Amino acid sequence: MTAVPTRRERQRQATFDEIVDVSRLLLRNGEDVSVRAVAQEMGLTPPALYRYVDSHAELMMLVARSIFEDVVAAMTVARDEQAPDDPAAQVVAASAAFRAWALRNRIEFQMVFASGASMEMDEAARAKAAQTPVQITSLADCLPPDSGVHLFAAFFSEIFGRLWLRYQFDIPTDDELDPELLEILRSEIKPTEVTDGLGSPTPGMVWMFERAWARLYGTVTLEVFGHVHPGMISTGALFTATMLDIGADLNITDEWPRLQVVARAEAERTPPRPEQPS
């Protein structure tokens, strides 16, 4: 039986929630998200706020986790509106929901998806990063686990695994992969909460997952930062083409006429907000 939180615990949790809410409001308004600024907005002193967070880095991790939870919640709603035995419709709906969320929340998207790896790190982490060669990497490796990034990665990997079971798309064997890439991919079979969802976490499966994610993420990032013609964003033409490319690899091209209806319905349900200040 779960213990009922005490009054003190409830008050502390309420303060944590307020810290995150205030931080995200400052972020969306393009203002400083320092410990001092958050404390001032809450009517506290910085030392009082430090009773709840140990550092600015921890504050940013709390904010990042809250943002990831919001993204996953939006994608979950979209996924669950599709039939549970239709992973193709689920992945398209969830991808469209991710894009819609990103276009509505450009500044928060930039924080956790475009600049998360540059978040404040402790001295040991900086030293390790400086000694690590640049590699092909997944989103899950760019942020600490506490940021909530694995919630996001695990969400998509679970659907991806069911897609493979349903459509049996081609997965490259170890012999078909470049040896250097193969070594990198073998190191990517982690953490288990992400790769377990793939159902068959071979290097080839991870490679297919990474390629699909790179296309979706790359397209959404270009749209969020306005690096493509506005008409391609408003019509969803680039996103549609990207999903078709991904679908070809996943053996669901023949399903696209009905899946495009799913994507359009999701886009119409959650239209982008006006451009936010940068």
TrEMBL record:
Signal peptide: none annotated. The keyword Ubl conjugation does not apply. The keyword Transcription applies. Pfam families: TetR_C_33. Keywords: Transcription, Transcription regulation. Transmembrane segments: none annotated. Gene3D superfamilies: Tetracycline Repressor, domain 2. InterPro entries: Homeodomain-like_sf, MT1864/Rv1816-like_C, Tet_transcr_reg_TetR-rel_C_sf. This is TetR/AcrR family transcriptional regulator.
